[in-house]
Amino acid sequence: MTFRARHQRTPLTAGRLAGIVVLLSAVLTIFVVIGLSFGSVGVPLSHVFGALTGSDAVPAPERTIVVGLRLPRVLLAMIVGAGLSVAGLVFQALLRNPLAEPYILGISSGGTVGALVALSLSLGASVITTPVASFVGSAAVMLLVYLLAHRRGQLDTYTLLLSGVMIGAFFNAAVLLIIAVSNQEMRNAFLWLMGNLSNARMESIAIVGPALLATSIFLLLNAKAYNLIATGEESAMQLGINVPSLKRFSYLAGSLITGLAVSVSGVVGFVGLIIPHVCRMLFGPDHRVLLPASLLVGASFMILADLLARVVLSPAEIPVGAVTAAIGAPLFVYLLKRS
Amino acid sequence: MCASPYRPDRVSGFRAQFFGSMMSALAVHTISFSYTQNVPTVHDVSLEVHTGEFLTLVGPNGSGKTTMLRLLDRILLPDRGRILLNGKDLGSYSRAELARKIAFVPQEPTPQFPYTVAEVVLMGRSPHTRGSLFENAHDREIALSMMQLTDTGHLAEKPITALSGGERQRVYIARALAQQPEIILLDEPNAHLDIAHQVDVFRILKRLNTKSGLTVISVSHDLNLAASYSDRIAILVCGSLLAIGTPKEVLTQFRIREAFQTDVLIDHHPMNHAPRITLVP
Q1: A245 touching chain B per CB within 8 A
Q2: Handedness of CA A183, A259, A107, A271 (dihedral sign)
Q3: Engineering a disulfide at B99: which of A56, A101, B127, B172 sits with its beta carbon 3.0 to 4.6 angstroms away?
């Protein structure tokens, strides 16, 4: 399974990394503004800035739309997109497989079941317990898939992907079962778990956002080690990496990020596949670039995907997971054919 | 296949005693290792590798040569026995410390992601640049000179996935040399190389070996190249050490028949008088 980089590159320097980060941050800013401005009701750009700065010149309904409705949603899209992309990238490096991704590996479904169990047991369904339960579900599935795909010290690619898909299917069935036996009120509460961002709440964003950013920064500190482990575990050991401890930490971090994202958005598939793939094509396979790039591009992409979900059948909304799957599933097939 | 552990009646080589007073880079004390229970892959091997020595491990397929190399770099841990690196237990070094002392050129690396040759060679600097996210000018310089040394400089910006097996082999040698190790372990470095590059690689290793005192431990199936470049040759059979000594001592018709169960003709290389092995058709 190989990727061809579009351009020949010279090795990374701090300057080039800084340039890429600045460029992608600018792109993200533009997408944030677009996400705030467009929708079933258009808000002119000047009014968007006015609403954000709390200017009285902007009519109150527009202020409510921009700050009260769209801002949480755009922030949530950023968090989920960035998180799933970074998690996908880390799983791909660890498993040396560009098809690995939280949804394909069943990790997202594990997180959903975790969140559902927490909600069903009405553990307060607080902004803390849901992400924690979600993380536990994600980590459990990650471990299960890893153990299933490991044979005689070798990770088998197809066993890995099939185990992930099957475990995902199993847990999706479990989700349907839990929903079927719930009462109507609970059923409505569960709807957001089917992969959409309409349940954006500032309280959960304030918890999930910083946790995700902190984890991503820790991952970035290991970026060089991911380059080595992506060339092979023995190779990484020979080059001085403590592979078992790096793997433990990274699987845990990847499951944490996935769990956090799932706890606020449900299962949004394929983002962790699409974004690292696009970034690898644009910037090459160096994880020192790929980590920040996937984070920023993933955030931008998700704002766009959510915007599409809001306006395509306006005033009705489609789940954002449908948008990402419509783009991601064909890409997966394409990558599988090429491998 | 090796049904039971092979037990040579005696390990030949008076040079082992002659070198006894020299500093040993790696000292292997009666190590055994098995992947599956009761089938030892390496059985009771003891040997000393001297600092600045060029040692080649030879032996039939499945005789435990690669396993031996992996044990020496602590990729595998011996079930019994111990290994000393510069007089200290191998286990007492951290992974990074070990990577600054020992480099490993693997046999058939299969890359998944298209890192460029320059990026791969620079990865060899990582044991020396821990804690910093970027390599500095010094690291680049070393990487560049190792690429020139291994004739891979012109490939610098090519993705490793687009190279031929032989080119890739040389890139991994360049990466190992960029680690600036004291000891380099090579698992069949000439497996994919054309004859010109086979000689090139061995010449480079020999030059680093004599000029900079790099200790070279190589696994090879090419007995003639081994005879021409090695200070000593160790023959492994079924995980046991059959013989260790200078090429002249070890590469005899008797030993080769014992190890490979095949008859060969042995005369001398016309230039360097190393033993020359000719297969009997």
Answers
A1: no
A2: positive
A3: B127
Which residues are CB-contacts of A238 (< 8 A; sequence separation ≥ 6)? B73, B75, B99, B102, B103, B104, B106
Collapse the DSSP code of B239 into the 3-class scheme (helix H, G, I; strand E, B; otherwise coil) and give the result.
Answer: coil
Beta bridge partners of B240: B237
- Judge: A240–B95 Cβ closer than 8 Å, yes or no: yes
Higher confidence at residue A176 or residue B239?
B239
Output DSSP code: residue B56: E
Phi (first) and psi of residue B182, to 5 degrees: -85, -30
Tokens matching residue B189: 């470095």
User: Domains, chain A, ranges and CATH?
Assistant: 42-338 (1.10.3470.10)
Q: Are A254 and A103 in contact (CB under 8 A)?
A: no
CA distance B161 to chain A (A): 7
Q: Do A238 and B157 touch (CB under 8 A)?
A: no
Q: Please tell me the distance from the alpha carbon of residue B149 to that of residue B156, in angstroms, as a whole number.
A: 13
Residue A73 predicted with pLDDT over 80: yes
Task: Give which of A237, A153, A150 is closest to B36, Cα–Cα.
Answer: A153
Q: For residue range A177-189, list pLDDT tens digits in order.
A: 888 887 777 776 6
Pairing mode of beta strands B102-105, B183-187: parallel
Mutate to test the interface with A, among B71, B113, B169 (most CBs of A within 10 A): B113
Confidence of residue B22 (pLDDT cuts 50, 70, 90): low
The residue type found at A90 is: V
- Radius of gyration of chain A from its Cα atoms, rounded to whole angstroms: 20
Q: What's the CA gap between A163 and A100, in Å, rounded?
A: 12
Cα-Cα end-to-end distance for chain B: 23
CATH number of the B1-86+182-281 domain: 3.40.50.300
Task: Give pLDDT, residue A296.
Answer: 97
Judged by phi (left if over 0) then psi (alpha if -120 to 50, else beta), residue B131 lies in left
pLDDT of A83 over the 90 cut: yes
Residues of A in contact with B70 (CB under 8 A): 234
Phi, psi of A321 (to 5 degrees): -60, -30
Residue A229 corresponds to which tokens in the numbers above? 């482990």
* Inter-residue contact A262 to A138 (CB < 8 Å): yes
The CB density around residue A248, as the number of other CB atoms within 10 Å, is: 11
Residues 6+ apart with CB under 8 A from A189: A119, A125
Give the per-residue pLDDT at A334: 86
ipTM of the complex: 0.86
Long-range interactions of A324-328: CB distance < 8 A, separation 24+:
A324/A195, A324/A268, A324/A269, A324/A270, A324/A271, A324/A274, A325/A269, A325/A270, A327/A270, A327/A274, A328/A269, A328/A270, A328/A271, A328/A273, A328/A274
For residues B218 and B209, the answer to whether their CB atoms sit within 8 Å is no
Confidence of residue A339 (pLDDT cuts 50, 70, 90): low
In this structure, what DSSP letter does residue A10 have?
Answer: P
> Of all residues in chain A, what percent carry a pLDDT higher than 90?
47
A170 shares contact with chain B (CB less than 8 Å): no
CB A108 within 8 A of CB A264: no
The total of other beta-carbon atoms located within 10 Å of residue A220's CB is 17
| A244 near B CB under 8 A | no
Question: Where along chain B do the CATH 3.40.50.300 domains lie?
Answer: 1-86+182-281
